[in-house]
Amino acid sequence: MTDIAPLIKRSLVDQALEQLRWRISEGRWAIGERLPTEPELAAELGISRNTVREAMRVLAFSGLIEIRQGDGSYLRSMTDPLGAMRALSHCTLEQAQETRQILEVEAVGLAAVRRTEADLTALHEALKASAVLYHGDLEAYISADLLFHKRLVDAAHNPALSELYQYFSAIVGVAVAPDPEHFAASPGGVRPAYRPARSRGTPGPGTRQIPLPAVDQ
């Protein structure tokens, strides 16, 4: 019995969370509005006050609500950051590459306006390092290539954009890790293990020269 009880308890909390998130997404309460009390929510959902309390703590941790001691709970946001992270964690490689590419295109436009001389110097240094490694060690080239793109996005000076780009770049970087078995068979020094990412739009040395002039002005 003691092994089963916690599972039942978590299940009730999950159900309460689902109902509360649904009410929030449906606009039941406005941002900044005080939510019903624990007894009121318990009666509405048909669960105990303890279950409501635990569910509210989860919502507070995710940033959806703010619990003010002695005052009540208030809606802070209608978007659940944890829900977004769960969705991101299930994206495919193709989706990650596509999103990374979209973010990079937007970053280039912002970087052209916001970049500093330090940004420009860092971009040129990363580009040179990548070019030197293009026909050499693949693992080193991938690292240099990802660094160039990271610096390009960072030049947009938007922390949220940089964090998102870094997340999707990490997925792509792991997926295109070099495969030693394919090294010898690669024509022209372009490894088959990495060519698919290039052909789908992850810029190599040639294509990476396209956005740089837009920034280098």
Automatic annotation (TrEMBL):
Molecular function terms, GO-annotated: DNA binding; DNA-binding transcription factor activity
Coiled-coil ranges from the UniProt annotation: none
Residue ranges annotated for the HTH gntR-type domain, each copy included: 10-78
Domain of life (superkingdom): Bacteria
SMART domains the record matches: FCD, HTH_GNTR
Chain positions covered by the region annotation Disordered: 185-217
Pfam family, one: GntR
Signal peptide interval: none
UniProt entry keywords in alphabetical sequence: DNA-binding, Transcription, Transcription regulation
InterPro entries: GntR_C, TF_FadR/GntR_C, Tscrpt_reg_HTH_GntR, WH-like_DNA-bd_sf, WH_DNA-bd_sf
Name of the protein: HTH gntR-type domain-containing protein
Source organism of the structure: Pseudomonas marginalis pv. alfalfae
